[in-house]
Amino acid sequence: MARSIDPIVSTEWLEAQLPSGGVPGAPGAEGPAGPDTPVIIDIREPHLYEAGHIPGAISIPFSPVSDWATSTDELLMELPVDEDLFKVVGEWGMTTDSRVVLVGTLEPAPAPPYALSDAPRVAATLIYAGVKNVAVLEGGYPKWAGEGKLSTTAVPEVCPLAYSGSVAAGMFVPTEYVRDHIGTAAIVDGRDPDQYFGVTVCPFAGVKGHIPTARNLPAAWMWEEDGSYRPIEVLEQMAAGVLGQRRDVEVITYCGVGGYAAAWWYVLTQILGYTDVKIYDGAAEAWAKDNAMVLYSWTS
Question: Cα–Cα distance between 250 and 272 in angstroms, integer?
Fold first, then answer.
């Protein structure tokens, strides 16, 4: 199915989709959204949403334990079971045809850009659940607010629906799949180079190094300092430098617990046109429990 919304949308585009173009006081500015109005999902923490959000946005916060992810004593931030995902999608009024825009945030420098991976992680989760027309707002809410665009504290009403969708089977893969495809699939490690090369210990894995044959493509490099994505031609060059020119090669992305892995899945599949990309959701955290990491060379 062809997209009816770009994978990354600008603040200007989203403003134009709001009733009356988001102009305060204009007729219909606080009225109900039309059938073509995107579903705007604010995934920031509740107190940030309550302090001000984009008009019409609903609050479905993202965290390792939320409607978007589950965590256990063994693994953090895993994909919820299908039934739970379908329930969330339907309760918040979405269908397989909905156009969805995800609004995230970013931490001020010099903090790592972990929060920037939240929106593409949720986007990947929705696409897995069958909602194909999902977009990430460029720069998230900080960019929207920084440009002085209209914000509100009003909470919109949502009409729950009975959601009927189908999951993208094989999009998320387990440890056994990764182990069986070492040497045949291109395994992409989205963590920072110091963790990949074993200069520092990944806190989630607890040991130094990376999965054998994995190639380092740091997810943090895909964003500018203001949280916007680097130009498409730069992202293309980054990916091609690690994966080569073919876009039908099988790729498995991973990181520490699954955030950066999903960010690369989103960029590779939704923006750059790679056709066979999978997410290793257990990531380094799961791999290191029963499998060895290697140091320094991706050919080790």
Answer: 14
Stretch (H or E) spanning 278: strand 277-280
User: 218-232: per-residue pLDDT in tens?
Assistant: 999 999 999 999 999
* Assigned domain for 151 exists: no
- Do 185 and 56 lie in one domain? The reply is no
The span from the CA of 188 to the CA of 214, in Å, is 5
Q: Which structure tokens are listed for 287?
A: 């791999």
The letter for the amino acid at 103 is: V
Greatest Cα-to-Cα distance within the chain, rounded to the nearest angstrom = 64
Q: Are 140 and 105 in contact (CB under 8 A)?
A: yes
Residue 37: pLDDT band with limits 50, 70, 90: confident
Element (H, E) at 188: strand 186-189
Say which amino acid occupies 265: W
pLDDT band at 36 (very low <50, low <70, confident <90, very high): confident
Q: Which stretch of DSSP H or E encloses residue 137?
A: strand 133-137
Burial status of residue 266 (CB atoms within 10 A of its CB: 0-12, 13-18, 19 or more)? buried
- 133 and 208 fall within a common domain: no
Q: What amino acid is encoded at 194 in this protein?
A: D
Instruction: Please say if the pLDDT value at position 27 is more than 80.
Output: no
